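Researcher: We plan to redesign the surface later, but first we want a full-length starting point. Tokens attached.
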């Protein structure tokens, strides 16, 4: 567990992007969108706010993350880190970037739609009785 753990649930805004460090290590960058909505007290209208989160996966998690496509529903957990660099075009401009270095990542697949009149799927049996 991290001292500054971040947990997010959202949707990928674009396909995973695989990069390589100067030393040859591969990592994957993900762009996750989370959304909050509330009712404005003055207007009575619902307001939506989307936040974008840059996430970095390393090692085996990077291999899994590299397969993810735009629109994938994800649960993500990791450590919030900041890094600072100088902008390439504007040499005097310092940029501070927030990133989440992932420790856990899971797909939250939606249940497939099926015919409500169809028989329920067969449950696999292993020769043991159920839990009750």
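Model: Full-length starting sequence:
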């Amino acid at each position: 567990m991290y001292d500054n753990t971040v947990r997010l649930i959202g949707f990928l805004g674009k396909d995973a992007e695989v990069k390589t460090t100067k030393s040859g290590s591969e990592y994957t960058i993900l762009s996750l969108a989370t959304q909050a909505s509330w009712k404005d007290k003055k207007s009575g209208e619902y307001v939506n706010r989307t936040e974008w989160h840059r996430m970095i996966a390393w090692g085996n998690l990077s291999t899994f993350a590299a397969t993810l496509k735009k629109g994938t529903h994800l649960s993500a957990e990791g450590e919030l880190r900041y890094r600072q660099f100088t902008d390439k075009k504007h040499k005097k401009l310092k940029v501070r970037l927030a990133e989440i270095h992932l420790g856990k990542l899971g797909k939250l697949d939606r249940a497939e739609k099926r015919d409500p009149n169809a028989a329920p799927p067969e449950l696999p049996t292993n020769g043991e009785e159920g839990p009750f």
